[in-house]
Q: What sequence folds into this?
């Protein structure tokens, strides 16, 4: 009952301190100790009461086990109780282990490689957005390529409720959102009709100097504009604007050192927000899950009036 | 030609009318009429859920209107399953609860929307209806416990129904444990965590532990006199878990 009261107090405190406890607040016990704060008193009390409860539960388990060994009748009921209590005990240990030893990282994955602690690197290969008939988001499917620390390359698709899972479930990469965003523009050199793929913030050598795409922004009229940095071989710099709309006629062309460059298209790359989660207690949790299911099956099969 | 939205509206209005008929018939002791009313209620609800599932292209338990109707159906179904083991008064009280849950939907604006990407998993329809089924068992346990207490206080014997409260609690506990397990698996796959510091989750743990503790009460003679108040307190905890955190908290489970 003390555990229940503590949990209820904790729920109220968390609800009142919206600034301290954000929504989607994961099970990170370190949060409450870095730094120690009087607002978290309910959690410290909860840990104490849960510890006492666990000790109590452990001795209950021992007693149940001894009773089961010595008993000749009603063994199904005793097994059910033993399994459910054992599962609860293991779950609490797993929670404590995960709460202090697990960690969560939030990162953006693009077509460039991003590092995942103790796993390797990852990059997004493609992204597909599925919508409902009213235009609302149905799902987002992202193909990721992982290069693991042992050199192995693995491709995995993630979507909502379908994470990429590693190490028997201890590590997972979970989608939080994503889209195909403009990553650069394609220009056509008028003299020979060759294409230039201009990526953001990457200089590209052209006749008479270098060009670099600074950013793509919408104009006040709603048309997309590209800001391009032009640096001649003599070091002179200037900023050029290009309208990324084929209706804009002459404004879709750049004149640089006697050469004309015509805007062709925007190219996009997937940008995916993910959570990379490490939870070392998953194997223990899976054991607790199997044991609890066994306990529940035994409990279901008990005759009526034989459940207490 | 009637639009699907209009049929849904008429079907739930008809369902509630049949539930009222069942409740009033039960109050008047008209056993057969109450049964007929309940089956008509289930039939109308089947149409209500079927059309919503068709329009949403998913299981129809994803908004507050569907949640309250689901709870209502499961309470009524639980009453029907245990009808021969409870008194007519208890059955009527349970039907009142089902009715209260059903009429709550008129408070809300019912616009049928597609479910969000996170809800589109088969763990969701396993998790939510099972939780509501557990509430239904525990509501009946609370009602039966109260009536049992009144009978004992009035000098009448509780007779063979003595273990029914514990049986109902056991069934609720099994179903709620499964709901928590499925919810935990869904949480792990969708958010990377089977548990979060969230009001709804904390109150679900409270509910599970509370009713888990109550399973032991028959073995503890010292606490027997507290049995009825504790089962009634359980109903309050269910209401806090379902309505309190669903409407008055910052929970991610908020409607």
A:
């Amino acid at each position: 009952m003390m555990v229940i009261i503590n949990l209820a107090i904790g729920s109220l405190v968390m609800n009142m301190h919206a600034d301290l406890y954000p929504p989607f607040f994961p099970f990170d016990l370190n949060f409450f100790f870095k730094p120690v704060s009087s607002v978290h008193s309910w959690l410290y009390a909860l840990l104490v009461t849960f510890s006492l409860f666990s000790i109590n539960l452990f001795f209950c388990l021992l007693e149940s086990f001894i009773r089961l060994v010595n008993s000749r009748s009603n063994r199904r009921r005793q097994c059910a109780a033993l399994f459910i209590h054992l599962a609860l005990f293991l779950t609490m240990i797993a929670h404590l282990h995960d709460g202090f030893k697990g960690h969560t990282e939030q990162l953006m994955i693009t077509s460039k490689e991003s590092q995942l602690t103790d796993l390797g690197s990852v990059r997004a290969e493609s992204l597909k957005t599925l919508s409902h008939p009213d235009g609302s988001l149905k799902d987002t499917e992202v193909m990721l390529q992982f290069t693991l620390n042992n050199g192995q390359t693995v491709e995995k698709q993630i979507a909502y409720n379908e994470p990429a899972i590693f190490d028997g479930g201890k590590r997972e990469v979970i989608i939080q959102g994503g889209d195909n965003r403009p990553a650069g523009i394609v220009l056509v050199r008028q003299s020979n009709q060759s294409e230039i793929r201009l990526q953001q913030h990457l200089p590209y050598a052209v006749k008479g100097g270098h060009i670099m795409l600074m950013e793509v922004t919408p104009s006040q009229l709603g048309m997309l504009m590209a800001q391009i940095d032009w640096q001649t071989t003599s070091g002179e710099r200037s900023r050029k604007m290009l309208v990324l709309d084929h209706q804009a006629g002459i404004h879709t062309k750049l004149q640089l050192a006697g050469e004309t460059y015509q805007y062709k298209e925007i190219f996009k790359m997937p940008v995916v927000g993910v959570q990379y989660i490490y939870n070392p207690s998953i194997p223990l949790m899976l054991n607790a899950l199997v044991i609890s299911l066994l306990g529940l099956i035994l409990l279901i099969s008990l005759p009526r009036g034989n459940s207490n | 030609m009637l639009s699907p939205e209009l049929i849904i509206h008429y079907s739930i209005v008809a369902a509630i009318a049949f539930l009222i008929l069942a409740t009033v018939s039960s109050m008047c002791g008209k056993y057969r009429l109450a049964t007929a009313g309940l089956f008509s209620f289930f039939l109308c609800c089947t149409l209500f859920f079927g059309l919503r599932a068709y329009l949403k292209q998913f299981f129809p338990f994803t908004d507050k209107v569907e949640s309250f109707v689901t709870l209502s159906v499961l309470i009524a179904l639980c009453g029907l399953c245990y009808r021969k083991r409870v008194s007519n008064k208890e059955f009527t009280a349970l039907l009142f609860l089902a009715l209260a849950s059903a009429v709550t939907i008129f408070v809300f604006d019912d616009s049928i929307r597609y479910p969000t990407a996170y809800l589109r998993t088969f763990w969701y329809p396993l998790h939510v209806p099972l939780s509501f089924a557990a509430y239904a068992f525990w509501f009946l346990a609370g009602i039966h416990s109260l009536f049992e207490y009144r009978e004992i206080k009035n000098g009448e014997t509780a007779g063979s129904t003595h273990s029914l409260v514990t049986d109902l609690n056991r069934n609720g506990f099994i179903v709620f444990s499964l709901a928590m397990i499925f919810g935990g698996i869904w949480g792990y796959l969708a958010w990377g965590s089977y548990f979060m510091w969230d009001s709804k989750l904390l109150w679900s743990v409270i509910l599970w532990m509370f009713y888990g503790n109550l399973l032991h009460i028959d073995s503890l003679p010292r606490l027997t006199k507290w049995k009825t108040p504790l089962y009634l307190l359980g109903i309050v905890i269910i209401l806090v878990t379902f309505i309190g955190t669903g409407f008055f908290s910052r929970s991610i489970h908020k409607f």
Summary: The CA atoms of residues 32 and 44 of chain A lie 8 Å apart. The first helix of chain A runs from residue 2 to 16. Chain A has a mean pLDDT of 87. The first strand of chain A starts at residue 103 and ends at 109.
